[in-house]
């Protein structure tokens, strides 16, 4: 396994990338992105079997990842770039005209690392099921990973997918929920409470793992490793991962306000003081 | 060319919010539903003033359409609010069966329509919604041009009994419609009388048409400019009257060419009075991330594109 200190440094750099990217275009979604940094670093640097230099759409014998909550594209793009899927320099084109780094991830512009468009919420689990079924047909033992927002779980399609995955034993898929308790209009508990999520997914027939420390890199790695031990056991796997929206930037934490707003110049400066440049800024 | 001035640029979604707020005070049957986009839709004032008549549905648009349909059974007038993509394509069958076919009095209010949503990119920039909605039997489709007109339209549709799709957007644009102008569903607004060409525009393209009209006047071309805020039912009388005079037409809209306002105009004219027509619209393409201005230029929806289309269509007149 890669050196954990090095990965923590990378996480700090990813946080810098996120705030710099959204600041540059005064748009985009820093909050959820910052909360999922450890997940992405763990997944792409430790957990998944993948080759950034040889990306193919079919990804045969590679582990696959689908970002269902497409608005947190900044963290996805930063980690893809820092893994070598495309030049880190390209992060500066985020959300600009003629860019491969669209506001929400897309295959249309051919960005390596992206296998489906997302942005309209609630669709990623279904796609992941399809890809997982294709792997089974191909006798390919690699794993399909997904990430979802907790607000996103309010979409009915998620539950159609959840029902299907359990009924048809899609057990080569590890889904994770970014359980930050926040969405656009406020706290999930105020907007539309999800109730007992663990009990709900279990009732649907899933193996459910709760990770209370989604911003602790070692913890994220160990829970993903644990999830892997359930692969092939006849049930789809869900990690409910508690995170802090805006993690790492003091004024972005404890609120839903930074779900989809970018810092201004002054706020950026304040943010950058809190996150060191550990790898080179793009 | 008649001179149009404005004191302020405003977003049409705020016109919707203001209209809804006013309806909250004047019509106790008006209820509002939103799918986790209260701020973006400018529904916060209504929510604050009438919490008992505001329903936060969560990110569940299909459920929202069904609940809206149900609220009409018992005499409520539901206004649903989310982005245009999630107001139409996302929930097409729910609208088709529970609202349109069932003849329910639901007002589907859709913000962030078209390219001018900007940086979020193509997943959110629906350019097919007018087509989707106008194809539904008896659905009224309205795309007002500025803040004042959106506010007036919002108030007017509460008085109309039947399903309505009200489309508006995110950017701030010139607010030039007089605040006291009455909104009549299905009645075109004549913006400038002219003789050489008819420009029929809707939504954000109306101001671009006015700019184009000024540029054309400077070239000695007299453009008649019509604001079609209601795409369905289409004001065919106004269109025919104008075309009999100018003998050619340019349509302009922030939408796919397939299925948009231009299609409706062409269908009417081909059956009644075949006329050369050019289309200023997106040509079979998805959008992308960028600033609203950059996108309108790149996808050919700027006033210069209207001017070019006018010159072309005039050259096609016999
Ligand atoms: C189908 C659909 N409806 C609405 C939206 C608008 N939207 C984007 S993000 C978001 C909130 C998502 O909440 P959550 O999944 O918890 O993500 P977080 O805010 O925690 O990043 C909404 C409503 C959307 N993108 N797609
Ligand atoms: Mg959330």
What does the secondary structure layout of this molecule look like, with pairings?
The complex is a heterodimer of chains A (282) and B (318).
Chain A: H1 4-25, H2 30-35, H3 37-47, E1 64-67, H4 73-83, H5 124-137, E2 144-149, H6 156-167, E3 173-179, E4 182-183, E5 186-187, H7 188-191, H8 197-204, E6 207-211, H9 217-228, E7 237-242, H10 265-274
Parallel strand pairs in A: 1-2, 2-3, 3-7, 6-7
Antiparallel strand pairs in A: 4-5
Helix pairs in contact in A: 1-3, 1-4, 1-10, 3-4, 3-9, 5-6
Chain B: E1 9-11, H1 12-26, E2 30-34, H2 44-49, E3 54-56, H3 61-72, E4 77-83, H4 84-87, H5 92-101, E5 107-111, H6 129-134, E6 140-142, H7 147-159, E7 164-167, E8 172-174, E9 189-192, E10 197-201, H8 205-218, E11 223-227, E12 230-232, H9 236-246, E13 249-256, H10 261-272, E14 277-282, H11 292-298, H12 303-316
Parallel strand pairs in B: 2-3, 2-4, 4-5, 5-7, 6-7, 10-11, 10-13, 13-14
Antiparallel strand pairs in B: 1-8, 6-12, 9-11
Helix pairs in contact in B: 1-7, 3-5, 8-12
The structure holds thiamine diphosphate (TPP) and magnesium ion (MG).
């Amino acid at each position: 396994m890669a050196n954990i200190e090095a990965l923590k440094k990378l996480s700090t750099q990813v946080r810098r990338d996120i705030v710099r990217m959204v600041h540059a275009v005064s748009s985009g979604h820093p909050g959820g992105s910052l909360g999922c940094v450890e997940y992405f670093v763990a997944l792409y640097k430790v957990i998944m079997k993948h080759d950034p230099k040889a990306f193919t759409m079919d990804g045969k014998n590679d582990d696959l990842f689908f970002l269902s909550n497409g608005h947190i594209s900044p963290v996805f793009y930063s980690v893809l770039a820092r893994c070598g899927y495309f030049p880190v320099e390209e992060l500066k084109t985020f959300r600009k005209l003629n860019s491969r780094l669209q506001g929400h991830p897309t295959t249309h512009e051919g960005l390596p690392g992206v296998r489906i468009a997302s942005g309209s919420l609630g669709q990623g689990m279904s796609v992941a099921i399809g890809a997982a079924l294709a792997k089974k047909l191909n006798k390919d033992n690699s794993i399909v990973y997904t990430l979802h927002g907790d607000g996103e779980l309010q979409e009915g399609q998620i539950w159609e997918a959840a029902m299907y995955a359990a009924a048809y034993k899609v057990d080569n898929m590890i889904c994770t929920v970014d359980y930050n308790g926040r969405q656009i209009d406020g706290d999930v508990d105020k907007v539309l409470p999800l109730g007992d999520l663990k009990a709900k997914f279990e009732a649907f027939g899933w193996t459910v793992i709760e990770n209370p420390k989604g911003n602790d890199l070692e913890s994220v790695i160990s829970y993903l490793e644990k999830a892997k031990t359930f692969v092939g056991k006849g049930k789809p796997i869900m990690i409910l991962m508690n995170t802090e929206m805006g993690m790492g930037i003091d004024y972005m934490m404890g609120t839903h306000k930074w779900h989809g707003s970018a810092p201004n110049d002054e706020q950026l400066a304040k943010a950058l003081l809190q996150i060191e440049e550990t790898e080179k800024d793009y | 060319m008649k001179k149009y001035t404005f004191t302020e640029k405003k977003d049409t979604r705020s016109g919707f919010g203001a209209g809804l707020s006013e309806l909250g005070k004047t019509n106790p049957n008006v209820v509002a539903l939103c799918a986790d986009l209260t701020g973006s839709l400018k529904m916060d004032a209504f929510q604050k003033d009438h919490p008992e008549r505001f329903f936060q549905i969560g990110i569940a648009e299909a459920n929202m359409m069904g609940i809206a349909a149900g609220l009409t059974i018992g005499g409520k007038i539901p206004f649903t609010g989310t982005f245009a993509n999630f107001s139409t394509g996302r929930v097409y069958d729910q609208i088709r069966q529970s609202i349109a076919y069932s003849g329910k009095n639901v007002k589907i209010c859709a913000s962030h329509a078209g390219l001018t949503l900007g940086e979020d990119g193509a997943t959110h920039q629906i350019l097919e919604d007018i087509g989707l909605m106008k194809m539904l039997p008896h659905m009224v489709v309205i795309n007002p041009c500025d803040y004042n007109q959106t506010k007036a339209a919002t108030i007017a549709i509460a008085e109309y009994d039947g399903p309505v799709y009200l489309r508006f957007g995110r950017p701030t644009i010139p607010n030039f419609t007089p605040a006291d102008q009455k909104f009549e569903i299905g009645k075109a607004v004549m913006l400038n009388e002219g003789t050489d060409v008819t420009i029929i525009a809707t939504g954000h393209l109306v101001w671009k048409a006015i700019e184009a009209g000024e540029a054309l006047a400077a070239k000695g071309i007299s453009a008649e400019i019509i604001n079609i805020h209601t795409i369905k039912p289409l004001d065919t009388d106004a269109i025919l009257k104008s075309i009999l005079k100018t003998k050619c037409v340019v349509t302009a809209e922030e939408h796919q060419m397939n299925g948009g306002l231009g299609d409706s105009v062409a269908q009417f004219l081909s059956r009644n009075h075949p006329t050369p027509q050019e289309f200023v619209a997106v040509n079979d393409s998805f959008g992308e991330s960028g600033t609203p201005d950059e996108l309108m230029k790149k996808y050919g929806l700027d006033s210069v594109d209207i001017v070019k289309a006018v010159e072309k269509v005039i050259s096609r007149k016999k």
